[in-house]
Amino acid sequence: MSVKETASNEVNKSAIGANLVAAALAVCLASYLALQGAGVKAFLTFTDKSSWAWEITAMGFMMKIAMDNKEKVAGFYWVKALVTTAIAAFGGGFLAPIAVAHTPVPLMEETYFWMVVTAWYITHHVPFLSDALTAVMRAPLGQKLFIVLFGIFKTNQIVGGLELGAKAVAAETLVPGSRYFKTAVAAPLFTGFLSGCGGAFLPFTNGLAPIEDACVWNVSASFLAPLTYFIATRACSCDPLLAKLAICVCRILGDLFPAPRDAVLGLTVSLFYKVTNLHPVAAPGKKVD
Predict the structure, then answer these.
(1) Which residues lie closer than 8 Å to 65 by C-beta, 6 or more apart?
(2) What's the whole-model pTM score?
(3) Which of 81, 87, 153, 241 has the fewest CB atoms lying closer than 10 Å?
(4) Structural domain tally of the chain?
(5) What is the per-residue pLDDT across 24-43, written as a single tens digit (0 to 9) for each?
């Protein structure tokens, strides 16, 4: 057997092993939640209090963020690498509350702060564990598992930011409320959007780069999710948890199946442009998909 074939076999064995580990993690998590009596709704809406689902989901999100940014921050001074990772994890968790004069979420629930520090440290300074996690997250089943955890946490960020904005405006006493809107619309939609993708605009030298030419999926989802949730809960009087569950499932499906997602979004965007007469052009001669 040639050296090339041997190396290929080793890679295949490693991939199979990582996939098996990922499958085992998924089975263990599902079994644990079932034994603890954690329902699917409570798990997906990040409201389960009877088990370690909250901690597992939050830490899974932080580990995915740290791993996704592993190559991006490689070679950075450690302080810059940590800050960059933290911005990716919850930049919106700072921007959205600050926009309505409230304490940033990672400082209120500082468990998030220490979780992202731990995730960053493991990723960059515990090689044997970092390499193993990288392999698991790249395996098909591992990728899907962490996408689910990411979607749950990201949805919670968006809904939390939206409700924070709504409550902040309703509780304001220093200035009069809107003359025409008894229920705030702009503030909750804005804080919900920032909570979902605010980190993409940080550091501020990024400017409006995330929306200059076209909206990537994370930005689009951060716009559509709060809009859908707001309409469902305010205009249609839907149960907030059911609305949260619905947008969480949609977010997860969108991440798991990018091709159908992009096809649906493409049709929706095309219809939007036709109805509004807006033009999908970011700059002269440059078309946006």
Answers:
(1) 85, 88, 89, 116, 119, 150
(2) 0.90
(3) 241
(4) 1
(5) 999 999 999 899 888 899 99
